[in-house]
Amino acid sequence: MLSALSLLLVTTALSVVMLFVLSSLKGSGVEGVREWGQGNAMAVLALLLFASRGVLPDVLSIEGANLLFIASVALMLAGFRRHLGQRVPTRPLLLGGAAAMACLVFFHHGVDSLPMRTVAVSIYHFSVYVAIGRTIPASPEPRLRYPYLFTRRAAFVLGTVHACRGIFYALQVGETLRFLEPAPYNLAFFAIGTLALPALTLGAVMMANARVIRETAYAADHDHLTGAWSRRAFFNFAEHEHARAARIGSSLSLLVFDADHFKRVNDTHGHATGDRVLRDIVIHAQEVIRKIDYCARLGGEEFAVLLPDANHQTAMDVAARLRTALDRSLHLAPSTLPVGYTVSIGVATLAPGETLAELMARADAALYVAKADGRNRVVSAPMPPRLVPVPERREWR
Ligand SMILES: Nc1nc2c(ncn2[C@@H]2O[C@H](COP(=O)(O)OP(=O)(O)OP(=O)(O)O)[C@@H](O)[C@H]2O)c(=O)[nH]1
Fold first, then answer.
1. What is the DSSP string of 267-294?
2. Using CA atoms, how far apart are residues 269 and 277, in angstroms rounded to an integer?
3. Most buried among 63, 185, 299, 393, using CB within 10 Å?
4. Are residues 256 and 139 in the same domain?
């Protein structure tokens, strides 16, 4: 037979399970996990104390249990705020918790009223759940959408249930009610109220996992130093664009470029300055290319830009702009000498029937010629003798 006590014990078990789930995120570096763990640990203790009503002294099963539950909900909010990089509203949480506890003590030892105690605690829970719902953005990026919306909606539903609970008990003032009353309304509020933390923890775990997956995907697809696309991502895009160009006969061009005498930059100014130059290269390269182009660091001081729908003339124009943009002096500090750098660029445009590897090899060979001819220049790769250029489909900008 379903009873308030059995609900409490089931939820306690669920909170213990949630603690184990949260433990799997320990060491993930995800902000908020510590607070969510502490919140669930306190909830387990609180639920056990609630379940001991009539066995343990009231001060433990009423004041002690509520204090722990109030703290656990506050910790959940703190976890969500930390996770989302927002300030934790410590003062309002402490004041709200203290006010709820003061009412609870008054309606226990002053005027003993279970309905009024429930109203006080419900107002506190309502406020914190609404604050959690408002903390979580309503329209996050697609990868985070489901966990964010799940948690946000769960928080608002829980807030609404606590508001209803508060109103319902406010209307019962004067009635003699028992805490573990087996009445259907009490069981319904119990079920939803005690499931609040596991539901929010589930949302928190989903949010944390989504973030870990997003960060892992970002790390795999981006160069950690410059933020440009990684070699891996670049070849994925290149294969996709190559297949598209072959299928619909559109143009595809490739620039491969390399910082000139970069070893000298490192040797003269230090490796850290070399790193600054590499970042500077990517920032300024990205200003020259379109949004649909892919700029990647292939390794060391070698980069590539893939230009979908760009014929050879367009690619040569972009390469000329890129070379000019990357003929730069970096002024890192007023007291130090400026760091000048240039790049050499090889340009190749896909010929009909050419493979991606062949296109890369031609662009690389052109870069090699640019280096051999004195650097700081653009060299166009000749078309393979048996092939003719792909007809132009679309103009640059
Ligand atoms: N700072 C820094 N240097 C790097 C990084 N990766 C590779 N390098 C350096 O890039 C330099 C490349 O030197 P080289 O291959 O001789 O080429 P270069 O000096 O640019 O000469 P050319 O390409 O012929 O103009 C080496 O000194 C590498 O240590 C990096 O991530 N950061």
1. HHH-HHHHHHHHHHHHHHHHHHS-TTSE
2. 11
3. 63
4. no
Which structural domain range is residue 148 located in? 4-221
- In a domain, residue 345? The reply is yes
Site to substitute for ligand 1 among 230, 260, 301, most atoms within 8 A of C-beta? 301
The rounded Å distance from CA 235 to ligand 1 centre is 22
How far apart are the CA of 262 and the centre of ligand 1, in A? 5
Do 120 and 54 belong to one domain? yes
Say if residue 217 is in the same domain as residue 247.
no
The H or E element containing residue 256 is strand 252-259
Q: Are residues 237 and 210 in the same domain?
A: no
Identify whether 386 is part of a domain. no
The residue to which tokens 């670049």 are assigned: 234
Q: What is the best residue among 262, 302, 342 to mutate for testing ligand 1's pocket, by most ligand atoms within 8 Å of CB?
A: 262
Judge if 156 and 236 occupy the same domain: no
Tell me the CA–centroid distance for residue 232 and ligand 1, in Å: 20
208 shares its domain with 259: no
Q: Do residues 154 and 25 share a domain?
A: yes
The tens digit of pLDDT for each residue in 128-174 reads: 999 999 999 998 899 899 999 999 999 999 999 999 989 988 887 76
Helix (H) or strand (E) holding 363: helix 356-372
Domain count, the chain: 2
Mean pLDDT of the chain: 91
Longest dimension (CA), the chain: 98
Same domain for 191 and 76, yes or no, is yes
* Average pLDDT along the chain, 397 residues, taken 10 residues at a time: 76 90 90 95 92 90 95 97 97 97 95 90 96 94 94 96 90 69 74 84 95 92 97 97 95 98 94 96 96 96 97 97 96 84 98 95 98 97 70 44
Within a domain: 391: no
CB-based pocket (< 6 A), ligand 1: 225, 258-263, 266, 271, 274-275, 278, 300-301, 371, 375
Residue nearest to atom 16 of ligand 1 (CA): 263
Rounded to the nearest whole angstrom, what is the distance from the C-alpha of residue 39 to the centroid of ligand 1?
51
Distance CA 10, CA 17 (A): 11
